[in-house]
Amino acid sequence: MIDRRDDSDIEIERRFVPKAKDINEDIAWAQINKDVLRSMERPRPMYWVIFAASLALFGFGVFCEVYQYQTGLGVADLNNPQVWGLYIATFIFWIGMSHSGTLLSAILHIMHADWRKPIYRFAEAMTTFSLMTAGLFVLVHLGRVWQFYYVVAYPNERWTWPNFNSPLVWDATAIGTYLTSSIVFLYFGMIPDLAICRDTATGFRRKFYWFLSLGWQGTDRQWANFRVAYLTIACFLIPLAVSVHSIVATDFAVSQQPGWHITSFPPYFVAGALYSGCAAIITLFIILRYVFRFEEYMTMPILDKTCRLTFAIAMVWTYLNLIEYASVWYGNDVYAKETLIYRATGLYAPYWWAMNFLGSVVPFMLAFKSMRNNLTIMMVVSLLLNMGMWLERFMIISPTFAHGYYPWTWTSGWWPSWVQWGIVLGSFGWFSMLFMLFCKIFPTVSMYEVKEMVYHRSEARKARNL
Amino acid sequence: MSKVHTMALFNDFEEAGNALQELKDSNLAGFRMQDVTIKSPIEHPELSALLGPRPVYVQLFTLFGAVFGAITGFTLIASAQANFLLQIRGGRPVVPIPPNMVLTYELFILCGVLMTALGCFIGWKLPGNRSPLYNERVSEDKIAILVKADSAAITAINAIFTRHRSLEIMGEYD
User: How much is the pTM?
Assistant: First the structure.
């Protein structure tokens, strides 16, 4: 066989074949179990600092909610036209945050991108807890929390069903479906690891993992069924995740409000959701890597890939944002154009410009390798990106209400009360608290998939060396 | 003759594969490849292929769930819409297709996912089916071969395991 590789091929390979490995291929399987299980037993003290801070924030949120519940929605400073305030803006933020975990995990699973394996578990957990947090805001903004079941599709005592043509009914169903499917996907992917926990735990924890691992013994029949089921659920989740945020977008897009009645809203929402989810994955990646001593598994090359993916999605979001501005600016809808001008020059202008800066300019820092290799910078950037995405949701809700068709709304300059801010902060505490609890009870790195990753890569290396 | 179980632990897939291949070629009386089970910390399709075809029926459950979900979803919504005594629709259809597709689609996925999970659990024969022999080192890094065979064949099977450097042999012998 003649070797046809010339110098240019070798040069291309030298430049483009990554040298840094996603994971150490020589790590022993038993060591993987040991490292991950140890992380659950003995995290760094920072774990307890984060957990205590989350608990404090959550406690403050509960206090605000109880105060609002007992005093009335008036303390939230909601009024007409500002009927949704931060509650629905933050609801959309959390729904968006939920997107990257399960969606990216499913896409990367189908594409056999094995670098997802050490990080997908916490990303999926992030999805589940984000959805649970988003659900809270539906209840909070109702005011009359005890009537929450009004949002669910069921017939009332007169046997009259809700309006199935309403996007709000679609919303409740889509989010319910997404939450259920995400929990199934998360749990399903965790069963072999729960069996590992069962085999090493003692006392009550052993019984707990024994129950959850459903008798998993890693038999060939179990693996075969598991693989097919896991792949099938992943295939279902991709269109589901897209549909959920498209449906949230239609809550706005099918209305006649200026600034909302825009055709590109569904893809814009989906891109924004992926964007904020990816930024959150970077934040949690850095936190978990330090707190649980996962330096061996949550490696810099994997962070690098995640950052590049986030940059690509940020550019998609920026493009769709510009499309929205352009279609409003050059369109014939004077009211929508007025609302756009109001966003850029009115009461909310600093936040609108901050959103554009944080969402479209800051991500360019992800384009530089030297930045991507610096954990502190990446932590700050990921937080800024999510701040930008939260502002995006705020900018969708409040300026539109403040500059609607009716001139009397134009003087309704509005700023949320401390109660609203408290509940929003409380939601971050609630999310962090659940997430940190999850990380302490369940393995956040998929042990069996990291073993697969190590095995296949070392086999490939052996084949190359032959 | 009574059937008993024996299980051997191996260090890696290669040794387990060699032992399986010899078992397959041995034509021992009182032993069938259908009664062999591999237990491993990760899936190894090449090793499982030595056991012969073992069909998976999860997709049938998925298909049933997805079709059931779509039909149920649309029927539920359409029947609820048609159930109103007064249909003041201003010329619009009583059962509009495009908006109903949204919930039909969601139920299609929900039932598909739930039935897939159920199908997988049934495929595992849960909750009753627990393999009689298990070693916790399987969940760490070892590969186990579990065989159910006539008690007369067990000695020969264990000899094959020993030849292929099994680390430990566990038995369920009378």
Answer: 0.89
